[in-house]
């Protein structure tokens, strides 16, 4: 399985990462090699095997519907790169 | 000997006898750092060892002893940046559960965090935004990664003991490169709440220490059920120190044939074989075992771990914390922030992971990898039916030179070949120093055990350690 | 060409638990922005989710109320996409193993009973709120993490009216379960619609249009009505229909296309590794079933059986939980075993009052004892049916007791035969023409004469007795 530049560009968009042309070039080559290596997995017959989505045999972990103390807006916004009053601020979204 | 050169258990004795105080230990560490940090660079954002202070809690089990924390474990009010530009200046408004446990036990959190590969992506600590850490045994070499800072600090006595995190070997491999002890507990043994996630189904926090007793003490403090972590297991934590000093007669150690292949580093091979002989001389019984799906571990890991990481790291977007790029629109903000904030390895893994989950590829990659993971786990279950331990090298090579593998991601990934399966199977494993190469670089012996059998690991590791001198040798700095 | 409209509805319901889905933040309205948050629902690095037990119980109640099949092994999946109101840039939702599937909701629409399939009811978490200002968009995360249920209907609705009726029925059941406020204005119930048109008789569905931004049940109906017209015009003029999303503009009464920049979205669903699997076994299901209140369907059956109502009447009386309660209390209080009289009053005059006032039955604020008293007056012929309806109106308007109103308005009926005979005689004398008409076969003259008696007695004569008397007089003479 190979991965072409177009696919890498599309995937970078899905991941919201801007790639410069040189980066796209280099990354495509590296990913191509890595995927080539990963392809050895296709040799295995896994038809009857169950996927290990969770490695622990635990289930039904739940919590009681009891309230805890919240952060104050100041604390919540302490690390914000941009804020306005008690809101986080981002560039205007145009839909 | 300076206070900084002692082990935690030795210092605890002194603290309890009034022969030492937390401030004295801090001063000793700072003095050491002043001289060594410019060379070793174990700590992130280090400026000077002056004016460092400790919030030393008197009393408690750990009597104010300072501990060094890896930069991906949240400490309230203290910068936690995963050594990445994208999390610059992030000060968490909460403590990780392990930090709360340490504080309750009387430990003092060292005010500087240990250097690491950005977001734990790496096996050499060369991917840190703050530059690489240097191996105290040979400053031209890497300390291993991603917990390279923690391991180097412990090895150079710039820390008494430390916490690291292990997703594919990130505690064990640097421990082995730096000649110290490193344990990855069973998945679910230690709470992940507050550990900035890399791969949620593989990550565990664990101790990096100067000897096995320290690791046993520390593991006990940080382990246990956490209602804030749905993947933490509700099982009693034994007093691991009690398993120290017991003999290992009759315990069965399996030697996996797939880990001793043609072309492995000859020096590593001979050091490990010596170590295994030592275990046998102490009464352990060895036998050859097979982990047939070993060759698939690295590809499986690099699909599952990167897929989970791609999702876990989506939150780093400039909205609520960290770095935000200058931008005129929302989409530009996202794309530029993440392009400028993430390093090369981070971008590579995120894109690989996103690809593995994307429409049309999910079945062939992610789903398939999950299935092979089951096969890998089954391999271990089968061996542990008849054997108490699996013993192997921690790393196929000793520490390599800084820059040697940086341009070859695939080669870098393959240095995890002996550690990765352990995370995939969720079992515990420890790396202990067991010798040196002719160039004086440490070699680590890796011991794996059944889930929740950390006490057995400490028992075997301690027996080996107490009958050898490797843990007493320190780098000449 | 005639086209058939096919509609499917997606309802998002906010559950009325005390706290959020994955953290203990309390859910309240009208809070200061970003004051009802914690590191978990803010998606801060290192945090982990733990699911709310009550939310699961509420969800199971809804699933069972819609007769869904419960998935024995269910799990959460991550739905990955970037948006500022989504702190982790993924939503914890359910993809391929949702909590429940294949249920139904029986409705009556335009006089006909119909079963609407419910494809699935699954769990997810809400996002935050965005406010758009002139130069920036502002984010409030108070709403992030509120537990949601997504209820998806099969494309079984064939008209905007059916869609409206489906929503009112759905809301009714949810109110019975008391798991949500179901208030579209407050946002605790949201609805998106999918609509397509196909030539009548065609088997395949037409091109689907998704409609969003409807803020009331009426809005849903109006938006769909507009779409039917718009799409019919398009199809008839031969223009190609593209799959798109359109927003309802309630002020202008039109739908507007959302520019679709990305094409199909790739959410890269995968099982959330931070949450465990949930096993919903028979015991758990039985436990929830036992806690279910009597649902509309059962109540209808019971009303039919216990009180002899027709299915149609039973459905009307149980169309809201509070109305059903009011009706049942009236019926229970009514003396004697034959409840038909009370039932007829409920579905007749009372329903009429509630319809004309656009209020629910229970909102009429009628005193049940007074109602029974009023009915008593009619039953013992003290007042006429006609008078009784007027009394009822006044009882609702003034809250005065029945007896008082009857007295104040001098409404007591004349049922004394002798008195009535006098009036009848007078009328017959005054209306010879009508008498001859009747004798010559015009039976309508009887009713005219009865009417005249009623008029002469200012409505107070007992009409039935008058009728008998007039009839006897006419046939005798």
Q: How is this structure best described in words?
A:
The complex is a heterotrimer of chains A (95), B (477) and C (477). Chain A has 3 helices and 3 strands; from the N terminus they run ααβαββ. By secondary structure, chain A is α+β, with helices and mostly antiparallel strands. In chain A, strands 2-3 form a two-stranded antiparallel ribbon. The longest helix of chain A has 18 residues, at 21-38. The model of chain B has no long low-confidence stretch (mean pLDDT 96). Chain B contains 14 helices and 10 strands. Chain B has helices at 8-17, 22-40, 97-104, 148-155, 172-178, 212-222, 266-281, 297-312, 330-341, 344-357, 363-386, 409-414, 420-425, 454-466; strands spanning 66-70, 108-114, 162-166, 181-184, 204-209, 252-256, 285-289, 389-393, 429-436, 442-449. Chain B has a domain at 3-248 and 399-472: Alpha-Beta Complex (Amidase signature (AS) enzymes), CATH 3.90.1300. Chain C has 3 domains: 3-287, no CATH class; 293-408, no CATH class; 417-476, Arc Repressor Mutant, subunit A, CATH 1.10.10. Chain C has helices at residues 53-65, 160-177, 217-236, 282-291, 296-307, 311-317, 321-333, 340-357, 368-379, 385-398, 402-408, 417-430, 432-439, 444-456, 463-476, and strands spanning 3-14, 51-52, 69-70, 73-74, 77-80, 90-93, 100-109, 112-125, 129-132, 136-140, 147-153, 189-199, 209-212, 244-249, 254-257, 270-271, 278-279. In chain C, the strands form 4 sheets. A 9-stranded mixed sheet of chain C has the order 3-7-8-11-1-12-13-14-15. In chain C, helix 12 crosses helix 14 (444-456) and helix 13 packs antiparallel against helix 14. The chains are: A alpha+beta (95), B alpha/beta (477), C alpha+beta (477). Chains A and B meet through helix 1, helix 2 and strand 3 of A and helix 8, helix 9, helix 10, helix 11 and helix 12 of B.
Keyphrases for this structure?
heterotrimer; B: 477 residues; alpha/beta; Amidase signature (AS) enzymes; ten-stranded mixed β-sheet; 14 helices; 10 strands; globular; C: 477 residues; alpha+beta; Arc Repressor Mutant, subunit A; 3 domains; nine-stranded mixed β-sheet; three-stranded antiparallel β-sheet; 15 helices; 17 strands; 40% helix
Question: TL;DR of this structure?
Answer:
Chain A has helices at residues 5-14, 21-38, 73-77, and strands spanning 62-63, 83-84, 87-91. By secondary structure, chain A is an alpha+beta fold. Chain A has a domain at 5-42: Orthogonal Bundle (Histone, subunit A), CATH 1.10.20.
């Amino acid at each position: 399985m190979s991965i072409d530049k177009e696919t890498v560009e599309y995937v970078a968009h899905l991941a919201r990462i801007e790639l410069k042309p040189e980066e796209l070039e280099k990354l495509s080559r590296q990913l191509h090699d890595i995927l080539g290596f990963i392809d050895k997995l296709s040799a295995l017959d896994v038809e009857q095997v169950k996927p290990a989505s969770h490695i622990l045999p635990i289930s039904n972990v739940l919590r009681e519907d009891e309230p805890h103390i919240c952060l104050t807006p100041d604390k919540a916004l302490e690390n914000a790169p941009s804020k306005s009053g008690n809101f986080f601020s981002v560039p205007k979204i145009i839909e | 000997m300076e206070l900084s050169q002692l082990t935690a258990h030795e210092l605890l004795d002194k603290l309890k006898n009034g022969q030492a105080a937390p401030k004295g230990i801090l001063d000793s560490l700072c003095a050491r750092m002043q001289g060594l940090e410019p060379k070793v660079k174990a700590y992130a954002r280090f400026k000077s060892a002056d004016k460092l202070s400790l919030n030393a809690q008197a009393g408690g089990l750990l009597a104010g002893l300072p501990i060094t924390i890896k930069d991906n474990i949240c400490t309230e009010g203290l910068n936690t940046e995963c050594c990445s530009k994208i999390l610059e200046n992030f000060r968490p408004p909460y403590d990780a559960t392990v930090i709360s446990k340490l504080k309750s036990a009387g430990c003092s959190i060292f005010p500087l965090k240990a250097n690491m590969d950005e977001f734990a992506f790496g096996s050499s600590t060369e991917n840190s935004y703050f530059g690489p850490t240097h191996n105290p045994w040979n400053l031209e070499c890497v300390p291993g990664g991603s917990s390279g800072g923690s391991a180097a600090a412990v090895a150079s006595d710039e820390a008494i003991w430390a916490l690291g995190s292990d997703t594919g070997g990130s505690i064990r491999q640097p421990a082995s490169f730096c000649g110290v002890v490193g344990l990855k507990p069973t998945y679910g043994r230690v709470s992940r709440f507050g550990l900035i996630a890399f791969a949620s189904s593989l990550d565990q926090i664990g101790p990096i220490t100067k000897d096995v007793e320290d690791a046993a003490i520390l593991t006990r403090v940080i382990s246990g059920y956490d209602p804030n972590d749905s993947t933490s297991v509700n099982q009693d934590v034994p007093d691991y120190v009690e398993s120290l000093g017991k003999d290992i007669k009759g315990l069965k150690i399996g030697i996996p044939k797939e880990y001793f292949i043609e072309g492995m580093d000859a020096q590593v091979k001979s050091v490990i074989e010596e170590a295994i002989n030592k275990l046998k001389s102490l009464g352990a019984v060895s036998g050859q075992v097979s982990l047939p799906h070993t060759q698939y571990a690295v590809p499986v890991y690099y699909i599952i771990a990167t897929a989970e990481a791609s999702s876990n790291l989506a939150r780093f977007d400039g909205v609520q914390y960290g770095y935000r790029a200058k931008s005129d629109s929302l989409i530009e903000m996202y794309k530029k922030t993440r392009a400028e904030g993430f390093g090369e390895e981070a971008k590579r893994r995120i894109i690989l992971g996103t690809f593995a989950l994307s429409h049309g590829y999910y079945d062939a990659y992610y789903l398939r990898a999950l299935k092979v993971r089951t096969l890998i786990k089954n391999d271990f279950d089968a061996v542990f039916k008849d054997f108490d331990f699996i013993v192997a090298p921690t790393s196929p090579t000793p520490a390599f030179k800084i820059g040697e593998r940086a341009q070859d991601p695939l080669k870098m990934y393959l240095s995890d070949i002996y550690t990765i399966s352990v995370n995939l199977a969720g079992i515990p494993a420890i790396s202990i120093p067991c010798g040196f190469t002719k160039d004086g670089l440490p070699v680590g012996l890796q011991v794996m055990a059944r889930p929740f059998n950390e006490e057995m690991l400490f028992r075997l590791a301690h027996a080996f350690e107490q009958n050898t001198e490797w843990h007493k040798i320190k780098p000449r700095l | 060409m005639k086209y058939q409209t096919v509609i499917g509805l997606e309802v998002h319901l906010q559950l009325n638990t005390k706290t959020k889905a994955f953290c203990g933040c309390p859910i309240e309205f009208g809070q200061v922005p970003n004051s009802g948050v914690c590191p978990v629902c803010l998606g801060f690095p290192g945090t982990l989710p733990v699911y709310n037990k009550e939310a699961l119980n509420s969800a199971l109640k809804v699933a069972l109320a819609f007769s869904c099949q419960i998935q024995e092994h269910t799990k959460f999946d991550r739905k990955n996409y970037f948006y500022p109101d989504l702190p982790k840039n993924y939503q914890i939702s359910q993809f391929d193993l949702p909590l429940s599937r294949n249920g139904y909701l029986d409705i009556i629409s335009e006089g006909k009973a119909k079963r609407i399939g419910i494809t699935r009811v699954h769990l997810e978490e809400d996002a935050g709120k965005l406010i758009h200002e002139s130069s920036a968009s502002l984010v409030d995360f108070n709403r992030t993490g509120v537990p949601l249920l997504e209820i998806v209907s099969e494309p079984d609705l064939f008209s905007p009216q059916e869609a409206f009726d489906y929503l009112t029925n759905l809301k009714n059941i949810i109110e019975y379960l008391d798991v949500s406020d179901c208030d579209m204005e407050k946002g605790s119930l949201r609805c998106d619609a999918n609509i397509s048109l196909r030539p009548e008789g065609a088997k395949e569905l037409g091109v689907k249009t998704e409609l969003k931004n409807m803020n009331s049940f009426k809005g849903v109906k109006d938006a769909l009505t507009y779409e039917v017209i718009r799409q019919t015009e398009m199809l008839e003029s031969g223009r190609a229909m593209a799959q798109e999303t359109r927003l309802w503009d309630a002020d202008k009464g039109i739908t507007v296309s959302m520019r679709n920049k990305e094409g199909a979205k790739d959410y890269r669903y995968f099982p959330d590794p931070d949450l465990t699997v949930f096993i919903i076994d028979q015991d758990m299901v039985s436990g929830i079933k036992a806690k279910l209140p009597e649902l509309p369907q059962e109540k209808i059956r019971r009303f039919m059986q216990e009180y002899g109502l027709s299915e149609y009447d039973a459905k009307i009386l149980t169309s809201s939980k509070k109305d059903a309660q009011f009706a049942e209390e009236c019926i229970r209080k009514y003396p004697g075993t034959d409840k038909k009289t009370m039932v007829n009053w409920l579905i007749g005059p009372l329903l009429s009052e509630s319809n004309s006032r656009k209020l629910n039955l229970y909102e009429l604020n009628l005193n049940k004892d007074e109602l029974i008293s009023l009915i008593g007056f009619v039953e013992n012929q003290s007042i006429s049916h006609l008078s009784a309806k007027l009394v009822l109106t006044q009882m609702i308007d003034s809250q005065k007791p029945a007896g008082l109103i009857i007295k104040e308005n001098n409404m007591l009926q004349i049922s004394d035969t002798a008195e009535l005979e006098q009036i009848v005689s007078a009328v017959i004398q005054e209306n010879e023409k009508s008498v001859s008409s009747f004798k010559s076969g015009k039976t309508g003259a009887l009713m005219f004469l009865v009417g005249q008696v009623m008029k002469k007695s200012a409505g107070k004569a007992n009409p039935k007795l008058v009728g008998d008397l007039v009839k006897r007089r006419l046939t005798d003479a």
